[in-house]
Amino acid sequence: MLIQLLNGVVYGGLLYLLSVGLVLIFGLRQVVNFAHGALFMIGAYIGYSVAAAGSWWGGLVVAVVAMAIAGCVLDATLFRALRKQDHIVTVLVTFGLLLILETLVTVIWGKAYLRYPMPDLLSGTVDIAGSPFPVYRLFVIVVSIVVALSLASWLRFTRIGLYVRAASTDARVTSIQGINVDRLSLIVVGLGTALAGLSGVVAGPLLSLSPTMGNYILIDSFIVVVIGGMGSFGGAFVAALLIGQIHNFGAIYLPWAGTMLPLLLMVGVLIWRPTGLSGART
Amino acid sequence: MPRSVHAFTAAAGTAMLAAMLATSALAADPLRVGVPTDLSGTYATLGEEVMRAVRFATDEANAQHGVAGHMVEIKSYDTEAKPDLARRQSEKLVSEGYTILTGTIASGEGLAIAPLMDRWGSIYISTINKADELTGANCVPRVFRVNTQSAMDAATVKPWLAQRKEKKWAVVAADIAWGRGSGALFDKAAAGLGKEMVADLYTPADINDFAPYIEQVKKSGAEGVWVVLAGRDAVNFAQQAKQFGLTRTVTVAGVSFTTDGTVKTLGDAAEGIYGIINYSSTLDTPENQSFVKAWTAKYSSPPTNFEGETYLGMQVLFQAVKQANSVKPDDIAKAMSGGEFDTILGKLKLRAEDHQLLKPNYFGVVEKVDGVLRPVVKTTVSAADVAPAVTCKMPS
Question: What number is the ipTM of this complex?
């Protein structure tokens, strides 16, 4: 039971890392980023290449930094221009971006599944409740909690955090107050994609690498964002953990409905509280 | 104009028409092969293997001026291993003139398009689909299978299972037609041998985390587990099972699980896993050796199991075209049904009753050979010994 609970937290933590990036980007730029799964995938591939060359932790750092830079470039070139467009335009453009990135990865790394190595430090198992549990999975939990705590305190206690919260609520009024929202969103989108890269690396040793790996997890992340409330950071955390548990216990107790449960929950939440668990920010 | 002139022009016209037909026959219609296969889904790497083998066979045939003078043309569309998409893409291929279909991965895809062959005027040759129904309960005259069906795999694993001392077994299988079928056959075989089935777990499509299933296998007290997962699922499951220490404490065997492709990805995580081997590049027939040599010269690595099976399918097709001396689906179908074919596994017969090719099957384990891990054949079961019972009532 305890192990099953932990497994749910692992998957939930992974979903959180990915969906909080979506929330950040949506909050500042009102962009539903379909390419987020592809950014997750590219982060994993970059980390893989560095890890294969010898340094797992180097792979983690390089992937996160590379994705942060990629995020800033994306914001300056694409998302800034998309801000004034209709939602459907942004969806189409980011979907196109997803296809371009997938093809790019296929050209560079090929289509074959790749196995992401695991750092020696984390490759063993520990006994929990008399059963071996992979140390690496505990590491995933730790990473997601550290990210959640630092992100929450950054948003809560720093001046930039205050600006981000303000801009997520109403970008126009925030800029009238004399805050440079474009510069702010450069930071926020960079952070969001860096988190996508981080989750890609962290997920690497659990999942096989393939150009389409992002698609399998992106749908769950969208469900998390919708359930948590579009643009809500705390809501995403709660929703991610919830979906993680539902995945896990659904597979055990309701196997025939396992894949349906997250979607049913989403429908239920949309009927009960159309703005998501944490309510609307606007 | 006198009547004789009419007769003359009519005769001349007919002669001209006949001459035209004759020349067009001389220029030989191309043999158009449509390959609806998974290029981006869970089984995308299998789809890639299928495409490589189809291309190899095509290039080989066209280098010798085609099959009995018919140049081979191929076209492929992505099915993502989804039955509904396979149906649409296959229909598109047929409407573009590619009336010989082959190469779908998931059994559900084959089962979805099989009943439509008659309406489309096309034929389908399965090279990967394993669900027994395709040449069993759902058999149709225009569908053929050159690969091993689940019943043949079950017959292959049974003798191995009989001499194993593990009493309690679990099944982890993909929740699709193939997984359900193979899982049920394993249950039956195990029950027949006095083994106890302690868990039957069917995993949904497109999942990332197998932890809940691994945990249930551990909890069930199973001493052995039969895994029916392929492609992305196989890699993810094997990797995560190793991390949980499952592969260390439990005997693992499977079908399409530790293939040439997945073993390459998995490395150590695959070592010691038993499994059905439907084709291996190491098989010692002269035909296979020369195929492997040509293949290795082109791709600089030996053919995988799926590549070998797909190539075998192309061999059967090409010989049927030669025997029929036609590229019309009806003529090819006639030549295939009950025909004998020279393949990389020797001379094999395609049974007329249900259109299943009777081929030998193999069982083995993943071991290091010259420092490289790969599935190694340990037992060979002859075509006669794995031949499944005919359950097909062929509709006429």
Answer: 0.89
B53 touches chain A (CB under 8 A): no
Interface test with A, best of B208, B239, B242, B307 (most A CBs within 10 A): B208
Tell whether A251 lies on the interface with B, counting CB pairs under 8 A. Answer: yes
- The answer to whether A113 contacts chain B (CB < 8 Å) is yes
Query: Considering only CA atoms, which of B118, B155, B151 is closest in space to residue B134?
Result: B151
Give me the domain span that covers residue A84: 2-117+133-272
Nearest-Cα residue of chain B relative to residue A118: B243
Query: Where exactly are the structural domains of chain B?
Result: 31-148+283-359, 151-277+363-386
Could you please report the per-residue DSSP string of A207-220?
S-B-TTHHHHHHHH
Q: What values do phi and psi take at B270, rounded to 5?
A: -100, -10
Which residues on chain B are in Cβ contact (under 8 Å) with A131? 215, 218
CA terminus-to-terminus distance, chain B:
52
Domain B31-148+283-359, CATH number (from 3.40.50.720, 1.10.3720.10, 3.40.50.2300, 2.40.50.140): 3.40.50.2300
B235 to A205: CB separation less than 8 angstroms, yes or no: no
Q: What is the mean pLDDT of each run of 10 residues along chain B (396 residues)?
A: 53 53 61 95 91 96 93 96 96 96 96 95 96 94 95 93 93 94 94 93 90 92 95 92 90 93 89 94 92 95 94 96 94 95 95 95 93 92 92 86
CATH number of B151-277+363-386: 3.40.50.2300
Residue A253 lies in a domain: yes
CA dist A253 and A248 (Å) reads 9
Determine if residue B28 is left, alpha or beta; phi over 0 gives left, psi from -120 to 50 gives alpha, anything else beta: left
DSSP state of B124: E
Question: Is B64 touching A (CB cutoff 8 A)?
Answer: no
What is the tally of structural domains in chain A?
1
| pLDDT tens-digit map of A119-172 | 888 888 888 888 889 999 999 999 999 999 999 999 999 999 999 888 888 888
- The single-letter code of the amino acid at A211 is P
Which of A1, A17, A111, A115 would you mutate first to test chain B, the one with the most B CBs within 10 A? Answer: A115
Q: What does the block give as tokens for A256? A: 């025939």
- pLDDT, one tens digit per residue, over A45-104 is 999 999 999 899 999 999 999 999 999 999 999 888 887 888 888 889 999 999 999 999
